[in-house]
Specification:
Length: 339
């Protein structure tokens, strides 16, 4: 399971002292107002997280007085030098993830000659009705996003971290499929494409600064069986309210989501039993709840909780209606996880 590899590198990263997570925001001490004519603003990103590496800094000077002019009583404040990237640890993180990615696809299985299997995408006659492809997409949204977060924690710039997270996720997905190609599972071009699309989507949302507004979550109910999994694309009502300057009260703790899931795509089931469901639902935004109760990503335990709460759709945390594409029928209200 690729998530095992991510857990390993997460432990490696969090176990190393003197990371950005363990420090105070350096600019809070390095940049102080020099006088009434100068103002400094600490501007959070749109998601308004309070940890250091998820904030941006803007320096606004009200007058035109050169800050390095010796005649002024207000010399330019000196910011701390940027943190030197921890390249060795970053290389270790990448290496461990890639090694786990290929090992998990080959070690537990009988080896055969390299083979390719075209599985299709979301058709009614595919093995899992497309739920496996939705899983690949959502998993790699999470992996790309969280690897980017770890690389930024290790001292890389936001842009470099985004590219490194994207590259690590896609390369791991490629090695995983190569490993599958050496087993009876076979190399799946469709799986690899969904991996790349998921990883790329995470990078695009981050670069466009809309990850506080739109997101994707994965679903991990039963390994190898997708009948109880629901994969949402979320509109984060907290982010929407912030963008319009609205106070929506407890509504900020909710998602409005479009979902995909399947039912009864198991061996021996008939076409009459199988369902491919597109849903509309309202669910709990655990990320916003964690932030508001003081659980932040700037501590190892808070980050561990956010990895779960931000990225996984838990059962019984949402309710909605679902349309069965195979039979043209609506179902619900229900939680979507169970028949």
């Amino acid at each position: 399971m690729r998530l095992i590899g991510f857990a390993v590198v997460l432990i490696l990263t969090l176990a190393v002292p003197k990371t950005l997570a363990a420090q105070e925001c350096p600019w809070r001490h390095a940049l102080m107002p020099a006088g009434d004519d100068t103002k400094y603003y600490l501007l959070p990103r749109d998601d308004e997280r309070t940890d250091c590496w998820s904030r941006g800094l803007q320096l606004a000077v009200a007058d035109d007085t050169p800050r390095d002019d010796p005649s002024t009583d207000h010399p330019r404040p000196l910011a701390e030098e940027p943190q030197e990237p921890r390249r060795l640890l970053a290389a270790l993180v990448i290496s461990v993830d890639l090694a786990v990615s290929i090992a998990k696809a080959t070690v537990p299985f009988e080896h055969v000659d390299f083979n390719v299997k075209s599985e299709g995408f979301f058709g009614p006659n595919t093995a899992h009705g497309g739920a496996d492809k939705a899983s690949h997409f959502a998993d790699y949204v999470m992996l790309s996003k969280e690897f980017a977060f770890i690389f930024e924690k290790l001292g890389y710039s936001e842009n470099a971290s985004r590219w490194m997270g994207l590259g690590t996720a896609i390369t791991g997905g490629l090695l995983n499929e190569v490993g599958d190609g050496l087993t009876k599972s076979g190399f799946s071009p469709e799986d690899l494409l969904m991996d790349a699309l998921g990883a790329g989507t995470a990078a695009l949302l981050s670069a466009a600064r809309v990850d506080d507004l739109v997101g994707f979550r994965t679903s991990k109910m039963l390994k190898g069986h997708y009948g109880h999994d629901v994969f949402p694309m979320d509109l984060k009502l907290a982010g929407l309210a912030r963008r319009f300057g609205l106070n929506v009260g407890p509504v900020r703790y909710l998602f409005f989501s479009v979902t995909y899931g399947v039912k009864d795509y198991v061996t021996g089931s008939t076409a009459a039993e199988r369902q491919r469901q597109i849903g509309l639902e309202i669910g709990l935004n655990l990320e916003e709840i964690l932030n508001d109760v003081g659980v932040r990503r700037d501590r190892w335990w808070g980050y561990a909780l956010h990895v779960l709460g931000d990225n996984i759709r838990f059962p019984f945390a949402a309710v909605g209606f679902r349309y069965d594409l195979n039979h043209g029928k609506w179902h619900g209200p229900d939680n979507g996880n169970f028949p």
